[in-house]
Amino acid sequence: MPKAVFAIGRDRQPLPVPRSMVDRSTLVNIPKSTRSVIAKAEAAEVGGRYADAYASYFEVGELMLDTADYARAKKNLLKALDMAKKMKSLRHQTEANLHLSEAFRGMQKYVPALKHAQAARELAQRSRDFRKIAESWLKEGVVLLNHAEALQEDEGSASYYKSAITAFKEVLSLISSFEANVRDLYELDAEINIGICQKGLENFDEAETAFLRCIIMAKRLGKNEHVRLSQVSENMGILYLEHGKPLDALKNFQVAFDNVGLNDTESQASLKMNIAYCQRNLNKIDEALKSAKESREIAERSHLEESIELAQRFITEIETILTQDRELKRMEEELLRPGGAVNAHQALENRIRAAEMNMKADRPDKAVGHLKVAAGMIRKSKSPPPEEVHNWARVQAFLGECCFL
Description:
Elements: H1 35-46, H2 50-66, H3 70-87, H4 90-106, H5 110-126, H6 130-150, H7 157-174, H8 180-200, H9 204-221, H10 226-242, H11 246-259, H12 265-281, H13 285-301, H14 305-336, H15 344-360, H16 364-379, H17 385-403
Helix pairs in contact: 1-2, 2-3, 2-4, 3-4, 4-5, 4-6, 5-6, 6-7, 6-8, 7-8, 8-9, 8-10, 9-10, 10-11, 11-12, 12-13, 12-14, 13-14, 14-15, 15-16, 15-17, 16-17
Protein name: TPR-like protein
Organism: Gonapodya prolifera (strain JEL478)
InterPro entries: TPR-like_helical_dom_sf, TPR_rpt
């Protein structure tokens, strides 16, 4: 799944990437060799035992999917599909096509991914397998969603998002007769992806509504679906972060982190960085530094080089900010210490200089505080009118600049 990523900088916004829901979230270890399984498949194929050949090719293909080796997955699943055709088994052809759709999607080859999802649906319709029909629509929707995410806005991404929403709504239209636990999972996956599509279309209210509905569903499903709760909470956090709501984003990222898979260290590191960024936006600098260091520690344990680099850049920047804060505080104290000004005019100048220092240090709130004090000093001033007007104009100009910071 795509992860949230960031562009670190004092005046730059994060660039989060939503995580599409797919139905493969459990990773397994690759055995030392799959050659014996492939050899078994080839021998079965030569001997005309197509069912055995299918089972072995499919086993390897599925294993490669689980470990994100999409090229090898495709190769073995195409073999499995060929065996299924020789068996004239609609069920096995359907399953192979569904997995091939996922393999091509992982390779970012969206046209063949879409083709195999649609082929799976046609086969499932012939056998009236409504669960596989729903699964094919879900696969198709995720392919369209990923394709939309890969495009720029002016390249027609909106049409792909809308087509994806249509596919996910097809899923919702099919599941009423499913068993409750199966129905709930299909509904949750479809709704999460609808929310991501609405977010891609910049329909904030619709996306928020979809995600809130998903959070309620995920909580209702209980501990068994904590990973889905993590994923939808992460997407909700990204939505809020992009719309300037860091406090709401922080709450959702924390829920996501608390429910993420124990072995999913990549998501753990990413979520900790999301949390750190929100804390930075909320001016909780010390907490942001702590979260970033925790992200780095998680990444180091799993040798996640990109995550380590991201966290380290953030840590370096935060430590620089803290150093600047300490120096700024020292300068302010020196400038505004009691008795530091020889007269009222000097006191006013020092106050305006303190405001200016905070503006340059990207501290508009503190700058405004100093300027308000300066404005009060001017009102009480006995300076000649021209000088009073000049100082008032300076304060108002600085206040205007603060509004743009």
